Amino acid sequence: MISGLYLAGTSPLHRAGAGQKLLALIGFGTVLLSLPSVVLAAVGLAVALIGYKVAGFPWRIAYRQIRAMLLFLAFLFAAQVWLVSLEAAALLALRFSALILSAGLVTLTTRTSDLVAALETALRPFERFGVHVEKVSLAISLTLRFIPLVAQVVEDVKEARAARGRERSMIALAVPVIIRLLKTADAIAEAIEARS
Amino acid sequence: MTIAPDKREALFEGVRVERGETLVLPALDLALTERRIGVIGANGSGKSTFARLLNGLILPSAGRVAVDGFDTKAETRQVRRRVGFLFQNPDNQIVYPTVGEDIAFGLRRHKLPKVEVRARVEAALHRFGLAGFEERLVHELSGGERQMVAFAGVMVLEPSWLVLDEPTTLLDLKNTARVMRTIAEIEQSVLLVTHDLDCLAGFDRVIVFEKGRILHDGTPRDAIAVYKAFHA
């Protein structure tokens, strides 16, 4: 269910600094997007995949990163073939896949706290322009932490909806989910206040 | 941060709490000096509000709450560092995806050096039976394990007081026993809000709330008897 959270390991990628990995990701993305070459995009995808092996992850971990996007990628590919050309479609699909996999690789090999610390360092110069760095970093860590929690709430409500014979009702899903998430948000805000 | 148990004192002086038009606690005057204090009462009786007053999560509309001499309204930061708070649902309390990172959360916010953060997290993992869990994803743990992570995240800050708001409600018998064993072992002064009357065995004092007022304040045996008789 949750694909992009940190997986402990001792590989060179795990040991590399969070800032280095983020910079490498930015560089990798810039090169991929600025040079319109199918061969280069294919090499980029291969590099991202090799990264999973270097990190010591089985292929299924790489597949999990991209699984949720497959339908979307297929739609984009088909639209590009129809509207532009097969080459443009291949370029787009390869670029997207390489980017998704490489971004996933960064979050899988980097602790959230290290990622947040690196982002805090990067954002620090913007404090003078009113950016509240600690709030931004807390928001990022909370987002990562609560992906599974939100998914669990949706599953619970789906189950309750089915038990009441309303499997297809969007209202029976959306209303309880929103209410529970709003209540959870209040409780989390209170807990963070208590822990600070 | 911890101070000697015999020097700890929480004072409630003429405390009144209103929420909008509703009067939650009309008038409260008491001093807490015991090491193990229980709070019981029906749903909506004001016991959770009372607990939240202790670390400034709720501020009095009138009157004053002071913990170890620090006013919860004027010196909230100092009060929060002295009073840890454990909530009913650990999922609402855990901020980071992995166990070790979450236990370190409060320490980092207090800008402690990395070496000290590391050492204290390590010690907390061992103390709360979480050795080897440091890199584990929180959402993959059981409810009892998650409550212990939340517990460790509070205790790693070494508060003098610990407020627990129905910490065993979502737990099975085994994990309830585990949490209660841990509570019995800690040096902190404890204020436990609970519906589980068995958890109050061995406590020094139990306060019974009813509609925002104190119905009884005494030994666990007497307090539980009064509470049961009132709701019989």
UniProtKB/TrEMBL annotation, chain A:
<feature type="transmembrane region" description="Helical">
    <location>
        <begin position="66"/>
        <end position="83"/>
    </location>
</feature>
<feature type="transmembrane region" description="Helical">
    <location>
        <begin position="22"/>
        <end position="54"/>
    </location>
</feature>
<dbReference type="InterPro" id="IPR003339">
    <property type="entry name" value="ABC/ECF_trnsptr_transmembrane"/>
</dbReference>
<keyword id="KW-0472">Membrane</keyword>
<protein>
    <submittedName>
        <fullName>Energy-coupling factor transporter transmembrane protein EcfT</fullName>
    </submittedName>
</protein>
<comment type="similarity">
    <text>Belongs to the CbiQ family.</text>
</comment>
<keyword id="KW-0812">Transmembrane</keyword>
<dbReference type="Pfam" id="PF02361">
    <property type="entry name" value="CbiQ"/>
</dbReference>
<keyword id="KW-1133">Transmembrane helix</keyword>
UniProtKB/TrEMBL annotation, chain B:
<feature type="domain" description="ABC transporter">
    <location>
        <begin position="10"/>
        <end position="232"/>
    </location>
</feature>
<keyword id="KW-0067">ATP-binding</keyword>
<dbReference type="GO" id="GO:0005524">
    <property type="term" value="F:ATP binding"/>
</dbReference>
<keyword id="KW-0547">Nucleotide-binding</keyword>
<dbReference type="InterPro" id="IPR050095">
    <property type="entry name" value="ECF_ABC_transporter_ATP-bd"/>
</dbReference>
<keyword id="KW-0813">Transport</keyword>
<dbReference type="InterPro" id="IPR003439">
    <property type="entry name" value="ABC_transporter-like_ATP-bd"/>
</dbReference>
<comment type="similarity">
    <text>Belongs to the ABC transporter superfamily.</text>
</comment>
<dbReference type="InterPro" id="IPR027417">
    <property type="entry name" value="P-loop_NTPase"/>
</dbReference>
<protein>
    <submittedName>
        <fullName>ABC transporter ATP-binding protein</fullName>
    </submittedName>
</protein>
<dbReference type="InterPro" id="IPR017871">
    <property type="entry name" value="ABC_transporter-like_CS"/>
</dbReference>
<dbReference type="Pfam" id="PF00005">
    <property type="entry name" value="ABC_tran"/>
</dbReference>
<dbReference type="InterPro" id="IPR015856">
    <property type="entry name" value="ABC_transpr_CbiO/EcfA_su"/>
</dbReference>
<dbReference type="InterPro" id="IPR003593">
    <property type="entry name" value="AAA+_ATPase"/>
</dbReference>
